[in-house]
Design brief:
The structure holds two protein chains of two kinds.
Chain A: E1 6-17, E2 20-31, E3 35-39, H1 46-54, E4 59-66, E5 78-81, H2 95-101, H3 104-107, H4 115-127, H5 143-156, E6 161-165, H6 173-188, E7 192-196, H7 200-206, E8 209-213, E9 217-221, H8 223-226, H9 229-236, E10 240-245, E11 248-253, E12 260-261
Parallel strand pairs in A: 3-7, 3-8, 5-6, 6-7
Antiparallel strand pairs in A: 1-2, 1-4, 8-9, 10-11, 11-12
Helix pairs in contact in A: 2-5, 4-5, 5-6
Chain B: H1 2-5, H2 11-37, H3 40-49, H4 51-60, H5 64-82, H6 88-107, H7 113-122, H8 130-149, H9 151-159, H10 161-166, H11 171-193, H12 198-212, H13 216-241, H14 245-266
Classes of the chains: A alpha/beta, B mainly alpha.
């Protein structure tokens, strides 16, 4: 895959959620293989941005372009792992059934899964450490395992762009480790990842670029640049306390974000 | 064996049995989606809402299926439109009761009002003619074919509409397809169980199967089997006990549900766990 091509282009994007503008005039581009951390306080528009990119929320103005295609009209494979899957866990499906759903577009209308589809499902389950649970009913999994199953489903889409909304929220340690491991594997495969997180430390250490939001794009660039004290103050305002020190800056938030140092 | 073959010496019993089995299968297959999507109330409403169409067709001596189908589609569209203004279950309640009342008023203009109404409400499986049977077979066959063709997409939309949107599946098309299939199924079942009891054939066999198996395919297959079983057992029951056939089939369904409820509790299978 060409590494330095643009994979995602967002231009003057304004999105409303429940009748209120949640994200105003956002413009940024993401290159192939990049890891972008999307950070900002609660209600900053992180989830709204993701939902607009995958077409779950209508775009008020501006546009989103995924690899040269307009996802509003064209069929574009974007992997999306929502913050909380709002699905019925008593639905009669096994873990591999769920992951196979990510392949529906590859399988095509009126067709049944091919051998390759089944191989991809198996591979995706291995990536998240759920291969042994492939034939378990979804309802028998723990919360973290369910989250991993949905990540495997997004993987099975073999999409060049993956959006993960707070994948670490409320998962157990084993799942957190599995997800971190997976993120490294995605980098090897040059999959572009946008990851929304509250964790500024994680954002700093993990990402190539940080997108700092608060109803609009506050800063976008390498972590050291995007998370400078000035930008952080503009994004978090009163919620944030900064201690400048010669070895770095200590950041304390009293919102729902965790502290970190830079 | 005599008690098994005896009733079959009457041609109307054979036609009734075939019709009931057909309805048992097609209702169970469509009903699997109804149960998985939580559309039981919608299915019941749609069944009741076809009554004015049936009544108009009956008065004008048009084919009943045509009138029923037109009314079913009109009701589905009306509910779909009203959903934008009021809550969905409210929209269903308004359309369903209004259409049902209109149907009763229309039928009341006929002299044989009580008998006709009873047949439309609770079915008249022994009155199925050879021509009726052919229409029912064609409707059921069409429904089953389309179901098979779009099965994986219909399951996906039922399980996770968010993924359906992300994958850019035509969700509106799939929703209307399901409503259309449901309307046709209800029309096919009209003569066998009647508009008041269709929902039982739609919901109870799949709900029973849901208690016993843990994948959609087997659930659908088992539901179809239970549908056939209840059709046959119900019809024989009605023959020997001299009770109405539609309610007899429904009671067999209910009985099987209760048995599997007990069995599944015994087996200790985890049900309805909160996420």
């Amino acid at each position: 895959m060409a590494e330095r091509c643009e994979v995602l282009r967002v231009e003057n994007l304004t999105v409303a959620y429940n009748g209120q503008v949640a994200l105003r005039d956002a413009t940024f581009t993401v290159l192939g293989g990049e890891r972008v951390a999307v950070v900002g306080p609660n209600g900053a528009g992180k989830s709204t941005l993701f939902k607009a990119i995958v077409g779950l929320l209508p775009v008020e103005s501006g546009w989103v372009e995924v690899i040269g295609c307009d996802p509003q009209r064209e069929r574009v494979s974007v992997g999306y792992v929502p913050q909380r899957e709002d699905v019925d866990l008593t639905f009669p499906v096994t873990v591999s059934d769920v992951v196979m759903m990510g392949r529906v577009r590859h399988i095509g209308w009126l067709r049944r899964p091919s051998r390759r589809d089944r191989e991809v499902v198996r591979w995706a389950l291995e990536q998240v450490g759920l291969a042994e649970l492939a034939n378990r009913p979804l309802g028998e999994l723990s919360g973290g395992q369910v989250q991993r199953a949905f990540i495997a489903r997004a993987l099975a889409q073999e999409a060049p762009l993956m959006l993960m909304d707070e994948p670490f929220a409320g998962v157990d340690a084993a799942s957190e480790e599995a997800i971190l491991h997976l993120l490294d594997r995605l980098r090897e495969r040059r999959v572009t990842v946008l990851l929304a997180t509250h964790d500024l430390q994680m954002a700093t250490q993990w990402s190539d670029r940080v997108l700092l939001l608060n109803g609009a794009v506050i800063a976008y660039g390498p972590p050291a640049e995007a998370l400078c004290s000035d930008a952080l103050r503009r994004a978090y305002g009163e919620q944030l306390t900064l201690w400048e020190h010669e070895r770095g800056t200590l950041v304390l938030c009293d919102g729902h974000c965790s502290g970190g140092r830079r | 064996m005599e008690w098994l073959i005896g009733p079959l010496t009457y041609p109307f019993m054979i036609r009734g049995l075939l019709a009931a089995m057909l309805v048992g299968v097609v209702c169970a297959v469509l009903g699997t989606y109804v149960v998985l999507r939580g559309m039981a109330f919608f299915g019941d409403a749609l069944a009741h809402a076809i009554l004015p169409g049936v009544a108009v067709a009956y008065l004008a001596r048009w084919p009943l299926s045509g009138g029923a189908l037109a009314a079913g589609l009109l009701a589905a569209a009306a509910i779909g439109y009203l959903q934008n203004r009021v809550r969905e279950d409210t929209a269903i309640g308004i359309v369903f009761s209004g259409a049902f009342a209109l149907g009763i008023v229309l039928l009341s203009t006929v002299r044989t009002y009580t008998v006709d109404l009873t047949h439309f409400l609770f079915g008249n499986v022994l009155g199925v003619s050879a021509a009726d049977l052919i229409v029912m077979a064609a409707l059921s066959g069409g429904v089953l074919l389309l179901t098979m063709a779009f099965h994986k997409e219909l399951v996906l939309v039922a399980f996770d509409p968010v993924l359906a949107t992300v994958l850019r599946l035509p969700t509106t098309f799939l929703r209307y397809l399901l409503l259309l299939l449901l309307a046709v199924t209800v029309v096919a079942a009209l003569q066998v169980v009647g508009v008041a009891l269709v929902v039982a054939m739609l919901v109870t066999p799949p709900a029973t199967a849901h208690l016993l198996v843990r994948r959609v395919g087997p659930m659908m297959g088992l539901a179809a089997l239970l549908g056939i079983l209840s059709a046959v057992a119900g019809l024989y029951g009605s023959y020997y006990l001299n009770i109405p056939s539609g309610p007899a089939m429904v009671l067999v369904c209910t009985g099987m549900f209760l048995v599997s409820l007990i069995l599944s509790r015994r087996a200790g299978w985890p049900r309805r766990r909160n996420p």
